[in-house]
Write a structure and sequence with these properties.
The chain is of the alpha+beta class and 473 residues long. The strands form 6 sheets. The protein has a 7-stranded antiparallel sheet. Strands 5-6-7-8-12-13 form a 6-stranded antiparallel sheet, with helices on one face. Helix 5 packs across helix 6 and helix 9 crosses helix 10. It starts with 7 loop residues before the first strand and ends with a helix. The structure holds iron/sulfur cluster (SF4). Iron/sulfur cluster binds next to helix 8 and helix 16.
Length: 473
């Protein structure tokens, strides 16, 4: 319950015949809602005619049955849930982005952030491009459509465009006749595909969304790979595979992804159990019970319990019927919402020495509030354990870890943080343990160790494009 935001979720369907593709995307987006709650959208391709609906809000609110039923049947559709990591929370920034260009139409849904978005946008504006949104996804759409002017096919245009993009992009694009899935050569963000019993191809950010629509998982899209789905079937283009070192975001496993997803062959649930075990080995505690902060701390708490032999308990209950805690900005809002969202189970924690597991500490205010809740419920001791190393650096690849000055571990020692949040002891997962969560070295852990897999931008403000606009006025 770190208060960090996931990036976005993408979903795409290609059916041989005209079907209720919007319905499939709707359920797929529902399963990806944890990846973004600011806005969502669906674009249906009805025999070359694109029909869309996008708005701010959760999937269930933006697509009530009467609205969903206005979307036509079609052979393809793409969908998106968004938490804006670049660009503000406005309707103009809702995705999928749709573009009419000289050679047809394009709809595009993006998960991730380009680390060279500002430079690309400057370059495009100097050559006359006019942007309608402030999200860097529109930059990708521009580059693809420009390349399409000379490229013999949409897939060739996407391939050429991808040579100019740096950073994180898991993309689903739809033309009049093709659905394209593309994952950046580092593989920062997940992307996978599957097939339904009716033979429809389904592309999704996480495998949990394939399950939700009854599709059989086939495999992950490989870093650098482009899959093209058309009436002729599926074709894999691997020109960029292996061109860069794999750098899968380790925080997907620790916090962002759903535990029932499998990313690049590794179960998210299993990796969290491992994190809990490694944490118990690195920072044991003399305690009576292990509890986790719901939801992302629960699996690691179970792992800690299994490793330490300390019984696992349900010590905190999350109110499932409110939105995610940190949708609104502002510190005071945050404190109120934690109180509304979590409540302690007094009979579990009263008089006990409690090990409390969470996935991260960002500013410390949320942890402080949770520790206080448990003290008020009668916990005798609280030993906080974090299933990730301390955050020390910003992320440029599609999350909102964006400001070193707000990361508490940058200014305080572990002992000091324990005192600030009111815990008796505090321990973090050691950095060296991260690779063991997934069993390989192909990970990005830059927010923990500062080792960035790409050149990093100089201006990383989420609203940098809005700021630029106002500076120009
Ligand atoms: Fe993930 Fe951190 Fe790398 Fe960002 S910097 S991609 S959050 S591991």
């Amino acid at each position: 319950m770190s208060g960090l935001h996931e990036e976005c979720g993408v979903f795409g369907v290609f059916c041989p015949g005209a079907e209720d593709v919007a319905g499939l995307v709707y359920y797929g987006l529902y399963a990806l809602q944890h990846r973004g709650q600011e806005s969502c959208g669906i674009v249906v391709n009805d025999d070359g005619v694109f029909v869309s609906h996008k708005d701010l809000g959760l999937v269930g609110d933006v697509f009530p049955p009467e609205r969903l039923s206005t979307l036509p049947h079609g052979s393809m559709a793409v969908g998106h849930v968004r938490y804006g990591t670049t660009g503000g929370s406005t309707r103009a920034n809702c995705q999928p982005i749709e573009v009419n260009h000289q050679k047809g139409k394009l709809a595009l849904a993006h998960n991730g952030n380009l680390s060279n978005a500002a430079a690309l946008r400057d370059e495009l504006e100097l050559t006359g491009a006019i942007f309608h949104s402030t999200s860097d996804t529109e930059t990708i759409a521009y580059i693809v459509t420009r390349e399409r002017l000379t490229a013999p096919s949409i897939e060739e245009a996407v391939k050429r465009a991808s040579r100019r993009l740096e950073g994180a992009y898991s993309l689903v694009l739809m033309s009049s006749t093709k659905l394209i899935a593309l994952r950046d050569p580092h593989g920062f963000r997940p992307l996978c595909y599957g097939v339904t019993g009716d033979g429809a191809y389904v592309v999704a950010s996480e495998s949990c969304a394939l399950q939700a629509v009854g599709a059989q998982f086939v495999r992950d899209v490989e870093p650098g790979e482009m899959l093209v789905f058309s009436k002729e079937g599926m074709v894999s283009h691997r020109d960029h595979c292996g061109s860069k070192g794999r750098s899968a975001c380790i925080f997907e496993y620790i916090y962002f992804a759903r535990p029932d997803s499998v990313i690049d062959g590794v179960s998210v649930h299993d990796s969290r159990i491992r994190a809990g075990r490694l944490l118990a080995a690195a920072h044991p505690a003399d305690a009576d019970i292990v509890i986790g902060v719901p939801d992302s701390g629960l699996d690691a708490a179970l792992g800690f319990s299994l490793q330490s032999g300390i019984p696992y308990g349900i010590g905190l209950i999350k109110n499932k019927y409110i939105g995610r805690t940190f949708i609104s900005p502002g510190q005071s809002n945050r404190l109120d919402k934690v109180k509304i969202k979590l409540s302690p189970v007094e009979s579990v924690v009263r008089g006990k020495r409690v090990v409390l597991i969470d996935d991260s500490i960002v500013r410390g205010t949320t942890s402080q509030r949770i520790v206080r809740l448990l003290r008020e419920a009668g916990a005798k001791e609280i030993h906080m354990r974090i299933s990730a190393p301390p955050f020390l650096h910003p992320c440029y690849y599609g999350t909102d870890i964006d400001s070193e000055e707000h990361l508490i571990a940058n200014h305080h020692t572990t002992q000091e943080i324990a005192a600030i949040i009111g815990a008796d002891t505090l321990g973090y997962l050691p950095r060296e343990a991260l690779r063991e969560l997934v069993g390989h070295d192909g990970i990005c852990a830059a927010c923990f160790d500062g080792s960035y897999p790409t050149p990093i931008p100089t201006d990383t403000r989420k609203d940098r494009f809005e700021q630029k606009l106002s500076e120009k006025r």
